[in-house]
Amino acid sequence: MSTNTHAVSRRSFLKTTGALGALAVAAGGAASADAMFGEVPAAFADAQEKITWGHCAINCPGRCSLKFHVKDDEVAWVDTFTSKDAGFDDPQPRACLRGRTYRRWLAHPDRLSYPMKRVGKRGEGKFERISWEEAIDTAASKLKEVIDTYGNEAVYVPYATGVSASTSRPFNRMLSLVGGYLNFYNSYSTAQISCITPYMYGSKQSSGSTLSTAEDAELILLFGSSPVETRQGGAVSHYDWAHLREKTNAKIYIIDPRMNDSVMGHSDTWLPINPGTDAALVAGIAHYLIEHDMVDLDFLHTYCVGYDEETMPEAYKGKNLSYYDYIMGAGYDKVEKTPAWAAKITGIPVETIEKLAYEVGTTKPLYVNQGWGPQRRSNGEWTSWAIMALPCLVGQIGLEGTSNGTREGSNSISLSSLPKGTNPVKKSIPCFLFTDAIDHGPEMTAKNAGVKGGDKLEVGIKYMINYAGNCLTNQHSDINKAHDILSDESKCEFILGVDTVMCDSLKYADIILPDLFRFEQVSMIGTGGDNAYMIAGQPCTSPKFERKTAYEMATLMAEKLGVKDEFTEGKTEEEWIVELYEQSREKDPELPTYEQAMEQGVYVRPGKKKVSMEKFRTDPVANALDTPSGKIEIFSEKLLQFTDGWELQDGDTLAGMDTLPAIPVYIPEWFGVESTTEEFPLALTGFHYRGRIHSSWGFIEDLKEVNPQEAWINPLDAQERGISQGDTIRVKNQFGVIELLAKVTPRVVPGTVAVSQGAWHDADMFGDAERVDKGGSINTLTTQRPSPLSKGNPQHTNICQVEKVSA
Ligand SMILES: Nc1nc2c(c(=O)[nH]1)N[C@H]1C(S)=C(S)[C@@H](COP(=O)(O)OP(=O)(O)OC[C@H]3O[C@@H](n4cnc5c(=O)[nH]c(N)nc54)[C@H](O)[C@@H]3O)O[C@H]1N2
Ligand SMILES: Nc1nc2c(c(=O)[nH]1)N[C@H]1C(S)=C(S)[C@@H](COP(=O)(O)OP(=O)(O)OC[C@H]3O[C@@H](n4cnc5c(=O)[nH]c(N)nc54)[C@H](O)[C@@H]3O)O[C@H]1N2
Ligand code: SF4
Ligand SMILES: [Mo]
């Protein structure tokens, strides 16, 4: 493999000349159109083709390269970077089906083309075209009014992930210049694991070893991770996973309530587990290891705190608070965590747990990895902590072929981003609690809602700029409740929505601005898996209709608010990109020049095997972690101190405790396999689907045909309910009802239904009392109650009932 030796002849870009610059002309044409996505429209047949490069900017680690074949200033078809472009076989940031269907989105009849104002009720979706002048004027004057009335703490930019690029946060920058906005912390992706990892490993060890490291492993355990589905694209973990399996002889176990697609194509073992119970599985394994003398005591005593009495912090000695005491039944709930105990909870037979435990105890190197499914749950902080504790029990940390139990690490190219400016507002909320902050902000405190930077909120959220996100409803939880909060105009008084299509969240906007995709403007992004790469792109066509870039929109607002010069610093977006890129090159001089980068489109850098915590393993004193003890903390005193005095709800902690556990225990979920009810007797778990990235592409009919929205249900549960494959069914619970197709399959554990997240919510919110969601969005059924420690979204934790829709 070499670094960008690929020929550039097919796209020898002209020197960039702003919005319309960089056109490459090439022969070729209609015959090469991808049959799957339709013929090149007849109108283009004779036109000369130009090719431009761009990147996928959706929240998918692929960030793939897209190749636009453009005729008469219209995109005729889209494909991707291939070995022909590269001049080498791999790695190639090739786009998946979704990326290759972009033409379906960018030219869709529902694509937003003009600024609009709302003329119906919030959520009704009735809008009228207005001028840019009116749109910006309204958005700016409302902002001023809210700031004057309530202060800047009432202004908020919700979590939203539809655009990743080096200049993708212009609205935050604009707001910083007019007094600021309420911050958020956490993400919807990793709230629980990102919160717990620093307690255990310190703040600098958040990622695991690269997948390439696992080539040296003898045993590989993946907990709730599916690189083939969630790391798609030609140059990230999907690719790395496929290659790893060609190279390794290791035994691989994938532990998941669902037989995910990453299990396929290798003699892997799927261990079906009840959702939300991984910490119980780990506890059962720990018990076996202890009983059979397979625990690495040297490692635990040298590198860790809290495994047993010997390494408990002074103040906590003699109280049976160690992990060992939890496992052996001397402390906490006083239950011995035998494999038989774990079997009942996890649904995994006791012999299987014992066999797995034996293998864990005897096979080295052991590579333990977890995805983020196990942590996006009500007990996710402790689940992810327990999974991380597993390799520690057998000393499989910091050595060749091992990982630290977190998600795989990567090699990536990091680019400097548009400075967000200094936000004068210091307070911050967990992003998942924004609907609470709209509904009852002044009741939210540090101790009941994780408010940071102050003891409490003074005011609720009154003004939002929702840019490139569908998290107001569709991707947030309990859509019915979110609707009730957002549709009340006395609560959040103004919502500005910026998108490319009328997603469900945008129906709640008061003013809508139509955005250009990143491949309709100059853009750059870096990413990577085992290998690192960067993609630079030029506009594929001129801007159509009245669409503008987000940078232009924020500039217009800044101008209205009298801070244009401070906002732009006299620069166009492209000038910013050039300047930021030069900053990146100063830090990383191997990067090509800007001109080269634009010419090449794709820059690839072969990555290195990275073993997490290698230095710490070699010398734990010289390379102490930045935890309070400098060691791995299996018991965290800091967690106890931080959460002292917190208000907890029933089920947040172990029965009988009034504090949060400071070791990785199994806490039964509030809505889980141990808390189903007669009314809702099944667990309901979610996953990220290959048909969409969240809700993105969720309205593209061709993709819906390939990837229908289905509820996975085990034949045992289906039979009981008279449900057959392909039936239309209703899944319901205390929060709502969704309608979708049944996928009757042994690929999901009995007693649990699995529904992919991100389907487009489709309910009559005004006429239908039941608000049946015929789009099948799982967030009609999820709760807004946050997980106890991180205050994150526990969106995989639900219970339900399923019934066939009568004919
Ligand atoms: N139940 C459940 N819910 C979940 C999850 C789960 O596992 N289960 N996962 C959560 C996670 S991890 C995440 S990250 C969130 C993601 O939630 P979101 O950040 O809301 O992601 P998307 O649904 O992809 O929405 C992205 C929006 O950006 C728009 N967009 C795309 N390209 C552009 C562009 O160029 N410009 C503009 N202005 N807009 C654009 C799309 O049309 C879409 O409306 O969802 C969370 N929600
Ligand atoms: N195709 C596609 N790719 C994506 C996305 C997408 O929407 N679609 N979203 C992107 C984003 S923003 C993110 S954050 C990541 C999300 O990446 P992840 O969070 O890792 O993805 P999930 O599908 O939520 O979970 C991974 C697996 O965990 C399983 N799982 C759920 N609960 C449990 C549990 O309690 N125990 C165990 N052992 N397994 C469990 C699920 O069945 C699933 O197979 O993916 C990214 N990639
Ligand atoms: S959705 Fe992901 S895998 Fe598909 S083209 Fe975009 S970045 Fe690549
Ligand atoms: Mo995410």
UniProtKB/TrEMBL annotation:
Keywords: Iron, Iron-sulfur, Metal-binding, Molybdenum, Oxidoreductase, Signal. Residues 1-33 form the signal peptide. Its cofactor is Mo-bis(molybdopterin guanine dinucleotide). Residues 49-110 form the 4Fe-4S Mo/W bis-MGD-type domain. GO terms for molecular function: 4 iron, 4 sulfur cluster binding; dimethyl sulfoxide reductase activity; electron transfer activity; molybdenum ion binding; molybdopterin cofactor binding. Residues 777-797 have a biased composition (Polar residues). GO terms for cellular component: outer membrane-bounded periplasmic space. Residues 775-797 are annotated as: Disordered. It holds the Pfam family Molybdop_Fe4S4. GO terms for biological process: anaerobic respiration. Belongs to the prokaryotic molybdopterin-containing oxidoreductase family. This is DmsA/YnfE family anaerobic dimethyl sulfoxide reductase, A subunit.
